[in-house]
Design goal:
By secondary structure, the protein is mainly α. The chain has helices at about 10-30, 35-40, 45-50, 55-80, 85-100, 105-110, 120-140, 145-170, 175-190. It has 9 helices and no strands. It has 2 domains: about 10-55, Arc Repressor Mutant, subunit A (Orthogonal Bundle); about 65-195, Tetracycline Repressor, domain 2. The radius of gyration is 19 Å and the shape is elongated.
Length: about 200
């Protein structure tokens, strides 16, 4: 348990609890994780945990929001890093796979969660929509595509990346660097054909 000498300012304590909870949820899953487990892992009493979060769902939604904001900022940075479409494709895949590798627990919270809470699903949908909007905008800056065409291509690109991540996880025969290069080559080969339309 925390001693008085170990008391943290409220914001720091909340950040610490979010970090610990992220690790516990990513390892155990939403359904089998309890607030008792998180409090114990954080070295705090359960009442301290409830001073910051009203419920397990409230804590999990905070995790989704934090992880989603992190991923969205990485994708926005990648898309804004260059005006060259080929480099944008490469940078975006790189940002996505770097996030998967370097921020594994956040990735699990966003993409491999076992939670079926309506509010959580709504937040995760909002993340996908935000990311899709960025990609659609980049596609339409590059090629003359209708909204429906850009949406379709965007879904194909995002869906492909998500499938490839799961493939890497299950087989381990391809590393993230190789996946980035292969996906960039494949995607760019198709996308550049739209530039002349």
């Amino acid at each position: 348990m925390s001693s008085p000498q170990q008391r943290l300012p409220r914001d720091q304590r909340r950040d610490q609890l979010v970090g610990v909870a992220r690790s516990v949820f990513a390892t155990r899953g939403y359904r089998t994780t309890s607030m008792d487990m998180i409090a114990e892992a954080a070295g705090v009493s359960k009442p301290v945990l409830y001073q910051h979060f009203d419920s397990k769902q409230d804590l999990y939604l905070a995790l989704i929001d934090s992880s989603a904001a992190h991923l969205d900022s990485r994708l926005a940075e990648a898309l804004g890093s260059t005006t060259d479409p080929h480099e944008q494709v490469h940078a975006t895949y790189r940002a996505y796979f770097d996030f998967v590798v370097s921020h594994r627990e956040e990735f699990v919270i966003i993409f491999n969660s076992d939670v079926y809470e309506p509010k959580a699903e709504q937040r995760l949908r909002a993340l996908r929509e935000s990311s899709a909007t960025r990609v659609v905008s980049a596609l339409q800056n590059f090629a003359r595509l209708t909204d429906d065409e850009a949406q379709l291509l965007c879904r194909a690109l995002i869906g492909t990346a998500e499938v490839v991540v799961k493939q890497i996880d299950s087989q381990r025969g391809i590393d993230a660097d190789t996946a980035v290069e292969l996906l960039t080559q494949m995607s760019w080969g198709g996308l550049r054909s739209f530039a002349d339309r």
